[in-house]
Amino acid sequence: MFRSLSRPRIRIAATVITLIVAIVAIAIAAFPWGLLKGVLESRMTARFGRPVTIGTMERVDHFGFTTSVRLRDVRIPGPQWAGPHDLARVAQMEVSFSALSLLTGRLALGDVTISGAELNLVRAADGRESWRGTTGRGGTGGGGLDQLSVSNSRLTYRDEKRDRWFALNFLSNQSAGLRVSGRGEIRDVPVRIAVSAPAVSGEHRGKWPFDARLTGTDLSMHAKGAMAAPLDTEHMSLEVSARARDLKLIDAVIEAGLFHTQPVVLSAKVRREPGRWLIDRLNGRIGRSDLTGELTVIKDGDRTKLQGSFSSRQLDFDDLSSDAGLRRAAARKQAIGPRIVPDTRVNLAKIGRTDGRLTFRVARIVSRHGPSSLTSMAGTLTLDHRVLTVSPMVIGLRQGRIAGTAVVDQGNNGPVPLVKLDLRLIGSSIPALAGGGGSVTGRVDARAVLEGRGSTIREAVGNASGRIGLAARNGALPKEVAEALGFDAGGTLLAGREDRAVLRCVIVGLTMRNGVGQAGPFIVDTSQSRLDGQGTISFPDERLAIRLTGAPKHDAVLKLPGSATMTGTISEPDVVVPREVKSVGNVLKALGRAISGRQEPIAQDADCQALSSQVLR
Q1: Is the distance from CB of 470 to CB of 444 less than 8 angstroms?
Q2: What residues form DSSP beta bridges with 181?
Q3: Which of 3, 8, 66, 191 is the most buried (most CB within 10 A)?
Q4: Predicted TM-score (pTM) above 0.90
Q5: In degrees rounded to 5, what are phi and psi of residue 188?
Q6: If residue 483 lies in a helix (H) or strand (E), which one and from where to where?
Q7: What is the CA radius of gyration of the chain?
Q8: Each residue's pLDDT tens digit, 51-103
Q9: Exposed e or buried b for every residue in 325-354, given b needs 16+ CB within 10 A?
Q10: Strand 365-366 and strand 315-316: pairing?
Q11: How many CA atoms are closer than 13 Å to the CA of 230, on its beta-carbon side?
């Protein structure tokens, strides 16, 4: 084919192509970019969904592939819900760029000079953001500018969702560098903001250092580090320190879903890489509790994934609540009395797009109210699409431990999660559970397998179905108590204060249905007597309604007929003997049977081993 073309024709074709390329190049080099003002307004209007206007747009230079365009009186209205102020107004902006870069579809900026810019950013209580347009915007951090100059410019930010606002002044030039300063409030706490960095310039070589400070009486934060290039927030490392009256104040800045606490001091070494944050070291104190750990935060599409581990040498659970929260908890406790089931909140409604796996270990648990019944804690938390699993989980006690699994399932996005508990109490004792001391001894084991809905553990147990079992064995108790359990008034009176009896077992089994536990079995078996109970325990009030009947295992000195009732709560039980049981008539009848030798059948030993296996299965 090429052989059929004559050399003159080839030269003509080459000349034509060269002329076309030259004409295109000259056209690009001399193009009057101001003609695109209407196109740019239309595209920005489509981007924000509101009419964007540009007063004037003109080319500053006359010819060249690196060109400069000046825009004046740029106006971007804000959404109607955000108030009367425009989203942005720019008195003058001059932008230089490579015209040839437009052919590749990736604009290469040179110098950017901005004067008289006013930005007004608003986030509503429902999460709407005034700077979000109708179309998405890609792009990452900066780093491509040759130089950024900003003068006489201001930014205001109002966030009703996080209860914060800022008013900031911006300055950037070769002599002063980049400076941001201003003031604001975070949850009604006044703060000052100051950011400093070298000038944004293509002449800058190596890492770009920066220093950012937020200072206030009740909240201070400091971040000092370096970016790989000016404004390149995708590649940086920094040291962060923070001090606050409450961890919730820090959360109002970083938006990590944290909670109210006692005063906090934190420090961290942080790295930023594309798509993830790496906290290589975290140290801090909350109240008198300490914390160390590491965490990786990965952005995967629209989800956030966490991977990390945390440990504490000492933890006081009261440090994880503010003074106001502690006062509310104390008022609730005073109003309803003590409860053994914690009121820990487990609702995951606000954790919709976060997954992860975190391990934790607490070496020592303390309490400001005295010795804690809990001594240590360790486990692994796995969160997957609003399903939180804590497994394995081990809670150390003064004697023994609690081990098992807890699942909070809110995967259906419902308002109330389904809570599943499978917990075992292993190798504890009656004195340890009672807070130490006491005249009754014995090893205690227990198991709870429950499933119910609730936003707190207490609420979930109050709606739960399943089973609870407790077995205390191989102990001892005062003989007078053992005789009283058999309703033997005479044996109780004759027992010496130092006399002891064997506690063969205490067996309690509850079949739970919608928060009400039906007792069966309910047995207290001693060497002197046996006590049986029938009735219910209702949650979340932990209210007792148990009818008790007892019998001695020997000829009674003075056996009282009838039964007693156990009311009150698990923490504060109240045993009531009916008036007719302790009446003079019944006492005389019991005395007559004792004299005549006519005794009721004596109680038999319970099969403690089989009953223990039954309730602990």
Answers
A1: yes
A2: 169, 194
A3: 191
A4: no
A5: 70, 15
A6: helix 479-485
A7: 38
A8: 999 999 999 887 777 788 999 999 999 999 998 899 999 999 998 887 776 66
A9: beeeeeeeeeeeeebebeeeebebeebeeb
A10: parallel
A11: 19
- Quick one: tokens of 420? 């599943």
Q: What is the 3-state secondary structure (H, E, C) of 209-228?
A: EEEEEEECCCEEEEEEEEEC
Q: Which letter does DSSP use for residue 253 in this model? A: H
The CA distance from 270 to 237, in Å, is 6
Q: Give the largest CA-CA distance in the chain.
A: 145
Confidence band, pLDDT 50/70/90 cuts, at residue 506? very high
Structure token digits, residue 517: 């536990």
Cα end-to-end distance, the chain, whole Å: 90
pLDDT in tens, 331-352: 888 888 888 898 888 988 878 7
* Cross-strand pairs, 424: 403, 447
Q: Kindly give, in sequence order, each residue whose CB lies less than 8 Å from that of residue 124, ignoring residues fewer than 6 positions away.
A: 81, 82, 160, 161
Q: What are phi and psi of 49, to 5 degrees?
A: 75, 20
Burial track 381-405 (b if 16+ CB lie within 10 A, e otherwise): bebeebbbbbeebebbbbbbbbbbe
Would you list the DSSP string of 378-393?
EEEEEESSSEEEEEEE
List the alpha helices (DSSP H) in 213-299: 247-254
Reported as half-sphere exposure (CB side, CA atoms, 13 A), residue 45 has a value of 10
Cα(100)–Cα(15) distance, integer angstroms: 22
Pairing between strand 147-159 and 529-538?
unpaired
Do the beta carbons of residue 450 and residue 464 sit within 8 Å?
yes
Contacts for 19 with CB less than 8 Å, ≥ 6 apart? none
Please list the residues that pair with 277 across neighbouring strands.
272, 297
C-alpha to C-alpha distance for 417 and 141, rounded to whole angstroms:
39
Q: Are 391 and 405 in contact (CB under 8 A)?
A: yes
Neighbouring CB atoms inside 10 A of 613's CB total: 12
Backbone angles phi, psi at 155, to 5 degrees: -130, 130
